[in-house]
TrEMBL record:
It is found in: Membrane. This is Late embryogenesis abundant protein LEA-2 subgroup domain-containing protein. The chain crosses the membrane at residues 27-49. Pfam families: LEA_2. GO terms for cellular component: plasma membrane; plasmodesma. It is a single-pass membrane protein.
Amino acid sequence: MSQIHEKSPQHCAKKKLININKHHKRLIYTFTTFIISILLLILVVWFILHPAKPEFVLKEADIYRLGLLGSHLLNSSIQITLLSKNPNQKVGIYYDEIHVYASYKGQRITLDSSIPPFYQEHKDSDLLSMVLVANGLPVDPFFGYEIGRDQIAGRLELSLKSNGQLRWKVGTWVSGRYMFIVNCVVVLPFGSSAPAVPLTSKQGAHCLTTV
């Protein structure tokens, strides 16, 4: 007499659940492998191209106004022209935002001036002109004393600083946002033999860029 092997409904349910779990695990494994492969490909392309940080040169700086109201309120007006360069052969740069201001001996002497977003192709360059101003900006009480010392020395040293966000573009792929900081130092003639304003410097000054 042959034996009848009969499986309980509970046993069948467990077997079906195991099959479903295996199917889900296979899908998750396939999806994870695909994502990791894409990320590795992007990483390899990134290291092969190795985008260089942008370069900035201060082409011109003109001080049209730099005077105190009382002992610690400053009015200023400075026009500058920056040359922005993309040194990369195969990487474009999106500049999402750039804020620029001027400082003197570690203290701001203008408010921020913003540059509209723009895109820079490979090995391309752009001239960026802007006016930096301040009206009644609080400064250190010793500001007037420091300006007097520089006038005796015959030179005025300013720092033009900018910060913003950029993205790299390789083919159709665009990276996330990266913060960057630019610092330019310009020395202008400033003495009894030089007029008070405007002060002009047309000697190109290379700037330090950090990404």
